[in-house]
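Ticket #4471: complex job returned nothing on first submit. Input attached below:
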Amino acid sequence: MEGAEVLGRLNWQFGEVVATQRETDRAKSITLSVPDWSGHRAGQHVDLRLTSEDGYHAERSYSIASAPEDRPRVTITVERIETGEVSPYLTDELHEGDKLELRGPIGGYFVWEASMGGPLFLVAGGSGIVPLMAMIRHQAASGSSVPTRLLYSSRSLAEIIYRDELERLAQGSKRLEVRHTLTREAPTGWAGYHRRVDADMLREVAWPADKHPLTYICGPTPFVEATATFLAALGYASQRIKTERFGPSG
Amino acid sequence: MENQLDGNASAGTLQAIFPFEMTEVTVTCANCDDSNLIAETVVYMSGMGTIVRCPSCDHALIRIAHAKHRSLLDLHGARVLQFNGDH
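Support reply: We reran it on our side without changes. The output follows.
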């Protein structure tokens, strides 16, 4: 393992909203221009801080969705949690030109760079796709030849984040394969899987263990634990499986 | 609102105190002696603070409480923090 990198303490800085894009009914991407951005690695996140007029702070962590190559622009994708105190503001009230306070990039464990090789196996549950999308975009932007497979579990077709872009990237590339599974409604004629991720599905989609794949799993805690357990049973080495678990972050 | 997350989410709070990338630091539990990367711990975060728990025995390893103009760091449950590399 590499040494703990000395980075200096993190400071808050401001970014300006330069674009927003609706991804699904509940998810929105927000692109910030951060003048002093030091650059990030795919998989890292930022902390955002909102301050109310009386000085009350609310902080949340959001994974970076954009490729490092987009510097000094940083895109996050936020899923609206109805009862949350931060996400409804970010998805509904934020406009171009607004300033947001952030610190980052943060995290060195759940990170992939093209130089780390592969083959890469990415498994996403719901908005767990966000840091994995940064890896896919980095792979495309860097011209990496690392073969990559994504298995992406969503509740319904309408809740798949980045659906068009993933399709476009997979069509234009021999290196990226994307497989979807839907856990609730599936449209008639749906060609993907229609159930929760299970051992049989992983046996079909995941790289054979003897290819020594590098695996990143991101999603809700039970999804991540189940997927990691199935992969271990398929012979995947635990030190080549990296996980990021999240709960609903309002 | 309290969320169960993992150590990746606590990295910003920790890195506001320690000048290191903290997710790859190894923490040894003072209760069960198990060692894990911070990234692999169980973390609860709320407006009041952050608790980093041992994934093996659920003992509180690190507690950070935020109050007005001050923060409190309790490392009582962490026997050792191991930072790899030359510092």
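The helical segments of chain A are 87-93, 129-142, 163-171, 199-205, 221-233. Closing as resolved unless it happens again.
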